[in-house]
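Our preliminary data section would be incomplete without showing what the modeling component actually yields. Below, a chain of 144 amino acids is followed by its predicted structure, encoded as tokens that our downstream tools consume directly.
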Amino acid sequence: MEGIRSPSEPAAAHEPLPAPSRSRAVLAVRAVESLLAATSSRMPSVDELALASGMPRRSLERAFRTVVGMSPAEYVRHRALAEARRLLLEPSSPGDKAVTRVAAACGFWHLGRFAAYYRRAFGETPSQTLKRASIAPPVRPTTS
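Predicted structure:
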């Protein structure tokens, strides 16, 4: 019969893998989050993420799209950009912080790409964020 293969026949190379179950996808994302927490100063490759999750790369891609709505690479970049923004906005003495150091600390080695990703994500350049943070008065907690 056409379109049906016997269990002994190998699957065609172009035949897509089945999508991982929702619970398996969530477990894979959690495994990746654990790896990211342990390697905060660099961005692991998608192959490293797949190894950590115990899933093939394509299955991991589908799991991420199902659970977080983006690819693993986009997710890693998003987390790194959020951390860079947090560091840039963190109060410090003038001159203590440089965009270059923050970018490197978050795993970005190509500063032009970092600045472009950052601007796309936050609507301003990293240096604008840093400048704005250095002029803003410190937020003091209110007491009741």
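The chain has two domains: 19-69, 72-136. DSSP finds seven helices and no strands in the chain. Preliminary results of this kind motivate Aim 1 of the renewal.
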